[in-house]
Design brief:
HIV-inactivating Protein, Cyanovirin-n, 3-stranded antiparallel beta sheet, 10 strands, Cyanovirin-N
Length: 103
């Protein structure tokens, strides 16, 4: 289940590379957590992909959409141009007892 189902107030910080949200833990308390998306999302030639790194180093106009369920941006291609807006579903970011993790 995506973090978005048990978290609130999701925002991007650090130029879009860090996802911060208030996540509900097992006790029902809301805890602020962050995850560096550059550790799990990459940009191979203008498309976003999981299990890679440093997408934000080669992307512009990074945003959260669909209530924080999707990250979108304009990723750079190997020829130096930028693709039209691309998106990746953040369903692999989970809330594990109040902590954002990549799974």
């Amino acid at each position: 289940m995506s973090y978005a189902d048990s978290s609130r107030n999701a925002v991007l910080t650090n130029g879009g590379r860090t996802l911060r949200a208030e996540c509900q833990n097992a006790d029902g308390n809301w805890v602020t957590s962050e995850i560096d998306l550059d550790t799990c999302i990459g940009n191979p030639n203008g498309y976003l992909g999981w299990g890679m790194q440093n997408f934000s180093h080669s992307s512009e106009d990074i945003k959260l959409e669909e209530g924080g369920r999707k990250l979108t941006c304009r990723p750079k291609t190997v020829d130096g141009g930028f693709r039209e807006r691309q998106g990746i579903d953040l369903n692999r970011i989970q809330n594990v007892n109040g902590r954002l993790v990549f799974q």
